[in-house]
Design a protein that fits this description.
single chain, about 375 residues, alpha/beta, DNA polymerase, domain 1, TIM Barrel, 2 domains, ten-stranded mixed β-sheet, two-stranded parallel sheet, about 20% strand, elongated
Length: about 375
């Protein structure tokens, strides 16, 4: 049993009594303002202040009348996270952010700058219950889902701490996004909204280990965000060894869902494949993967493993290049990309830093 410090309990009680505005959607924020006796336009102003400008102090919201600003100060909560630590890579312009939640737990986000492209990787849960064998987050267990406000606050903090405009968002941090579906979609909608972060839907990618019912819901709702499915193996026997979720929804079911997504207008599913040395990186594995994806309009993102301890290792460059070469030689309608790991010197694999911080907090 984890004991919660009295100071944290006191902080939780004080915030529970307040309205948490961060994470509220465009329409919900307008409706909330009407419920408080204000106009819907006041909700639009609040939306812009919080998300477009990243302002958490109502005293800085200059176009809102003072009496309502005073009400907001007394009754509302605007900030859901605090920055605990920022680690900067000495190898490339990559930074890892460790955040602390109001209930004393830890999550991570990573900022990756590559030329004019600035990608931020966001977490969606504290821990994860899928228990993928190679993932640091999977080893820490599951605490809870992040609220939409906690997801959005990660990006707001990163934006304030970095100078280059954010161009891309990937939901590939701690947790399984589709097991926190509603909050993730609410956050993505805020990122896409012109009065929020104004990011094109094609620049927002949501990655899943294969939660088939939610993938089907995502397709049924005709969501315009990009979809990435983590395969990490070319057959069910191999995949089930490292991803227990495969025992529930097979590779063929995921391939079928990915094909359905790619048939939608201006959609192209991405299949992610983490290369693990001596496990799924052989020429035969590449040949099986090519046959599996034949005829699907998609991208294959090859990711050399970013070691986080444990039994799995990163394959050497020759193996990575040979794997990609075999795939490229067999390609039909798919494109092959190799994503080089970033931030290896700052433990940028998801969950490494948060796990250590959580252990230290309860040592």
């Amino acid at each position: 049993m984890i004991e919660v410090a009295p100071s944290i309990v006191k902080n939780m009680k004080s915030t529970i009594e307040k309205h948490t505005l961060k994470g509220m959607s465009f329409s919900n924020l307008q409706n909330w303002c009407v419920d408080q006796g204000e106009s819907r336009f006041r909700g639009i102003q609040l939306f812009e202040w919080m998300y477009q400008h990243g302002i958490n102090d109502p005293r800085e919201m200059s176009n809102i009348r003072k009496s309502f600003r005073d009400y907001l100060i007394t009754n509302c909560l605007f900030e859901t996270l605090s920055i605990e630590q920022i680690l900067s890579s000495a190898l490339e312009p990559t930074q890892k952010f460790l955040f602390k939640t109001l209930d004393g737990l830890f999550i991570e986000a990573v900022s990756i700058i590559d030329g004019v492209r600035h990608t931020v990787c966001l977490s969606t849960q504290i821990g994860c219950n899928l228990k993928c064998d190679f993932c640091a987050t999977g080893q820490m267990g599951f605490s809870r889902n992040l609220s939409s406000g906690e997801i959005v606050d990660q990006l707001i903090h990163v934006r304030k701490q970095t100078h280059q405009p954010i161009t891309n968002i990937v939901f590939m941090g701690m947790g399984e996004p589709f097991l926190n579906y509603d909050n993730v979609m609410d956050a993505a909608d805020i990122f896409h909204n012109q009065r929020g972060f104004d990011l094109a839907s094609s620049r927002i990618t949501i990655s899943t280990a294969g939660i088939l019912p939610k993938i089907e819901q995502f397709i049924h709702e005709k969501r315009k965000f990009k979809l990435a499915i983590s395969l990490n193996a070319p057959d069910d026997v191999t995949r089930s060894k490292i991803m227990p979720v495969n025992n529930k929804w097979s590779i063929q079911e995921l391939i079928h869902a990915g094909r359905a997504y790619s048939k939608m207008p201006r959609r192209e599913v991405m299949f992610e494949y983490v290369l693990l040395k001596g496990f799924n990186d052989s020429e035969d594995d590449a040949m099986q993967l090519a046959r599996l994806l034949k005829g699907i309009e998609c991208k294959i993102n090859i990711i050399p493993y970013n070691a986080s301890g444990g039994i799995y290792k990163r394959p050497d460059e020759q193996t990575v290049n040979e794997f990609a070469k075999v795939l490229s030689g067999k390609r039909d309608t798919y494109r092959v990309l190799v994503r080089r790991s970033k931030g290896e010197d700052i433990e940028a694999a998801c969950g490494q830093l948060a796990t250590k911080s959580q252990e230290n907090a309860h040592a």
